[in-house]
Design goal:
The chain is of the alpha+beta class. The protein has two domains: about 190 residues, Helix Hairpins, CATH 1.10.287; about 130 residues, Glucose Permease (Domain IIA). The protein has three helices and twelve strands, in the order H-H-H-E-E-E-E-E-E-E-E-E-E-E-E. It is rod-shaped, with a radius of gyration of 52 Å. This is Peptidase M23. One of its GO terms (molecular function) is metalloendopeptidase activity. InterPro entries: Cell_wall_metabolism_enzyme (IPR050570), Dup_hybrid_motif (IPR011055), M23ase_b-sheet_dom (IPR016047).
Length: about 375
């Protein structure tokens, strides 16, 4: 995503270039907001899809649980059938045992004994038929019960396997549902953070827009206030005084023209001179005061117009000695140094502009 730095107005310049920079930053924020809106829409769609999928999985789990309950009921019924068949089979086995035992007690060949003992042919035939029927019927019934029992056990085995499969399926669905819930939470957190970023960027944009309007108004006011300045005969034109201008204040240069600040996003367009609290700030050349007021970031500021498109700015004052429209001489005290506008130490911000463009003051100031 796009990262937009909030401009530090402590060093912003009331120039068309500065206003252009603000407009570019506002455009960057607009681009970021457009990207963020797309991201938000994508996240919302993802959340919607996840919620639908979670709902579908919840339904699947419910159906699997219902099917598992039916399988458990079937297992219970099969267990009861198995028990009943087992009891019947055991009863048949006991009956067969008794028949075998009785036949054994009569001898190894009960049918032969019957043949030997019976004289009536009809009775012999009936007896032999009885034995054959009894033996065949018993065996058939035992085989049928055994077959039913085997089938029941196989069915029970299949139902148990099916129930195990259902349990595994439900666990798989539960795992997927848990992953989706975790994903939903993460995306919801991302969306919430994005909403916060969007709100912050919108507030930032409003601030920048306000700064832009304020600077445009100030620049317009300054331009309207500037008129052709009648340069005294004894005063040399500003443009002829390169490396000859007096310093606006005593002190050490803390930041020079072109030094970066705001994490490298911006650069100084003037000098920041550390000086003593309450020391005088002096005009570097004859000119007219076009601005003398508080400006956010600069504190109390004075702007002088020297004609031919040259202007000088003096910021961070604790007190202003002039008013718009006043004329000042070179070296005249125009303000008192301080630390208004957010400086940590007493300092003077000094800048030179020609036709709205900042120029390095060290090219204009004389040696000390």
């Amino acid at each position: 995503m796009l990262a937009v730095a909030t401009p530090a107005l402590a060093q912003e310049q009331v120039t068309p270039g500065q206003i252009k920079a603000l407009r570019e930053e506002i455009a960057d924020i607009d681009d970021w907001l457009a990207d963020a809106e797309e991201d938000r829409s994508s996240l919302e769609q993802q959340l919607s899809g996840i919620e639908r999928e979670i709902g579908q999985l919840t339904r699947e789990r419910r159906e699997l649980r219902e099917e598992a309950r039916e399988q458990q009921q079937r297992l219970t019924e099969l267990s009861e059938e198995e028990a009943e068949l087992t009891r019947t089979l055991e009863s048949q086995r006991e009956s067969l045992k008794k028949q075998i035992r009785a036949a054994w007690m009569e001898g190894d060949a009960p049918a032969v004994k019957v043949l030997l003992n019976e004289i009536d042919p009809d009775k012999i035939a009936r007896t032999m038929t009885y034995y054959e029927y009894l033996s065949r019927d018993t065996i058939e019934r035992l085989e049928a019960f055994a077959a039913n029992l085997r089938q029941l056990k196989e069915t029970r085995k299949q139902v148990s396997a099916g129930r195990l499969r259902l349990a595994e399926l439900e666990q798989d669905v539960a795992n997927r549902q848990q992953k989706l819930s975790t994903s939903k939470t993460q995306r919801a957190q991302t969306l919430a953070a994005l909403e916060t970023d969007i709100s912050d960027r919108r507030n930032e944009r409003e601030e920048l827009e306000g700064d832009r309007r304020r600077l445009e108004k100030l620049l317009k006011d300054v331009e309207e206030a500037i008129a052709n300045i009648p340069t005294p005969n004894e005063s040399d034109p500003f443009g002829s005084l390169r490396e000859k201008l007096p310093w606006p204040a005593q002190g050490k240069v803390a930041s020079s023209f072109g030094d970066s600040y705001a994490n490298g996003k911006l650069s100084y367009r003037g000098l920041l001179i550390n000086t003593a609290e309450g020391s005088e700030i002096r005009a570097v050349h004859y000119g007219r005061v076009v601005f003398a007021n508080w400006l956010r970031g600069f504190g109390l500021m004075t702007i002088l117009d020297h004609g031919d498109g040259y202007m000088t700015l003096y910021g961070h004052s604790s007190s202003l000695f002039t008013s718009p429209g006043d004329w000042v001489e070179a070296g005249e005290a125009i303000a008192q140094a301080g630390q208004t506008g957010g400086t940590g130490n007493p300092a003077v911000y000094f800048e030179i502009r020609h036709n709205g463009k900042p120029d390095n003051p060290l090219r204009w100031l004389g040696k000390r």
